[in-house]
Amino acid sequence: MARQLTNAKPKNMKKTLSSFKKYIGNHKYAFVFIGLLVILSTSISLWGTYQIKTVVNRYVLKNDYHGLVSFIIFMAIVYFIGATATAIYKQLMVHTAQSIVQELRNDLFAKMQKLPISYFDGHPHGEIMSRFTNDLDTIQDALNNCFDTLIQSFIMIVGTLILIFVLSWKLSLIVFACMILMYFLIQYLSQRSKKYFKKQQNAMGYLNGFIEEMVDGIKVVKVFNHEKENSIEFDYRNQELYDSAVEALTYSGRTIPTVVSISYFNYALVASIGGLFAINGIMDLGSLSSYLVFVRQTAMPINQFTQQLNFILAAMAGAERIFDLMNESEEVDEGKVTLTQVEILEDGSMQESNHYTGHWAWRHPRDNGIELVELKGDVRFHDVVFGYNETHPILKDINLFAKPGQKIAFVGSTGAGKTTIINLINRFYDITKGSITYDGIDVKLIKKDDLRKSISIVLQDTHLFTGTIADNIRYGKLDASDEEVIEAAKLANADSFIRRLPNGYQTMLSSDGTNLSQGQRQLLAIARAAICNPPVLILDEATSSIDTRTEKLIEKGMDRLMENRTVFVIAHRLSTVRNSDAIMVLDHGQIIERGSHDELLEKKGRYYQLYTGQFELD
Length: 618
Known about the structure:
16 strands; alpha/beta; 6-stranded mixed sheet; single chain; disordered N terminus; 13% strand; 59% helix
């Protein structure tokens, strides 16, 4: 079923067509072949209608039954050729359209992977998803239905006009006037119906948004006994959708009856006048027969041509939104320092190795050659200033260091800048001033892929993918063996609960692991971080959603995991950071206190207030 369209039009048609040209150009020979087949098929249809004149004048009126049968057989062969051409170009159009949409989808996804985190922070996920769904679907519909139909309708309109003028130019003046009237009426009704369809889609969007919100918050609704109020609100929004849909379909429904009425009137008028022409010898009966068939089929190609133009405009509007995303600036990576496997020689020096050794180093190109710097996990901030908007810094003059194997904790109220510091270590964002070094190398010199390969992070919002538990743990190291998966789960103390599940490590998880408890999802996220065996580990409020018993299980596993690693921890509960080597207390983007747990308690400053409950942590 063809979807209803709103007044969607591209803002810059020329630019959009220029961008789309690449995808069309990849299949130019297919489009040329399809066009030729459409021309052949449509021409046969027009020729067949015109040949009614020959059948009537040469065979029917002269009672030439033998000639009639021979001509019918010939016509059947010609029509078979036309039908074959139609079947071929329809199938070819399907494959070509799917190929173009596949290429667009691949390029769009590849582009999305290269966009910086800041893009996703500034655009709703639903808006990004609509590029993959609504916009690509609209383009697919247009390619599947519009290209061949547009050519076919155009040839039918032009061919019909030429042939009816050949048959009788006097009658054609009447037909031409009716066709102009029909075209403008279709345009008028289409514009009015599109206005109401837009109103209908808005009403549907509001209703769907309300339903989604109520489903997500159904527990809150039931706790406060607001089912009745929600039903009243739903009825109101549903009635709005009903009213707008009736208006839209009423105008849309008037199009076909109007076109049909004009067509019948035109046909009756032409048949009457044509009959008088035939009686008076102005026009032969065969020509009149062909002419009347042409008149009957004039309405459909005009209606189709108008509809396909609207589909193309909607498809170009969708393409414009897709190309707008594709033209977004990609994440900049000018780093040249990469990670490499190294072998430790007897004299303690390092050399690159092509096989797995368990030892890593930074491969740092210098003017005088390649320098290998051992990967240790030494992270330092030097006078770092950062703001999402450069004129409004969030972090100010941050100085800190984390030596290999140290555990550094960040505490502070919401908005203090804890998570922002973590994002800078990963280079999700680049700092405004100062520098961040990793093993003495400025992180801007390190390729982002290699930098992030050396850091494992447990995000604040745990996200699991649809698949088995083993697959989700293995996401941290795609080539990990089953033994490595189990070992990582044991380190995170997740092995015991996994084995209690009916299918163990092969248990399928639903979207985002909703068939597990929050604590179990957190344990799997920690196992996923553990499996890649990183020198730097980041726990971004990793235990904030876990009960005390589960937290103790995690702490035991994490104590083993944190050995010989640099660890950064953010937590809501101060009990999780007491054994840190250094605690950084942040407030409004600045480190206002630093030291060990005991040292900070002795100072009786902000940390002391947080710890004793005089000040809220979050």
